[in-house]
Amino acid sequence: MIRNATMADVPHIHSLLNDFAERGVLLGRSISSLYDKIRDFVVYEEDGEVVGVCALQISWENLAEIRSLAVVDGAQGRGIGRQLVETCLAEARAFKITKIFTLTYQDAFFRRLGFYDIDKKDLPHKIWSDCLHCPKFPNCDENALAFDQVLTEG
Description:
Helices cover about 25% and strands about 30% of the residues. The chain is built from 4 helices and 7 strands, in the order βααβββαβαββ. A 7-stranded mixed beta sheet has the order 1-2-3-4-5-7-6, with helices on both faces. β2 (about 40-45) and β3 form a beta hairpin. The protein starts with a strand and ends in a 6-residue tail after the last strand. The protein has helices at about 10-20, 30-35, 80-95, 105-110, and strands at about 1-5, 40-45, 50-60, 65-70, 100-105, 115, 145-150. By secondary structure, it is an alpha+beta fold. The protein is globular.
């Protein structure tokens, strides 16, 4: 079941994200930043456990970022990541946001969902504010991909 994250989920989200960060496949997030951005997160809950997480962060007038996507090892390959991303895309659509991007090491996964490669230099400078705290800044080695949504009236 996918639902909005709650304050009680923050320790689980933090642990999950930092597990992947230690492997070098995702950038970690501080507990403080998770509490600050809890409204951005959705979780996939199974048998009372958070097994997946994803966030949609609105960056600009018509631009949002899919970030912090992680699914526990034992639950991967079952479409949970896809469902989390699709939930975030639906939320972006509800806000009438048509351009969504991601910075990721899992570019093949996002390409299968319809994302396409873009040059990081084409993203507005505003999105780089979180990067100042990244240990890889200014030598970001993540891949930038984008997704264009078509909005329908109604």
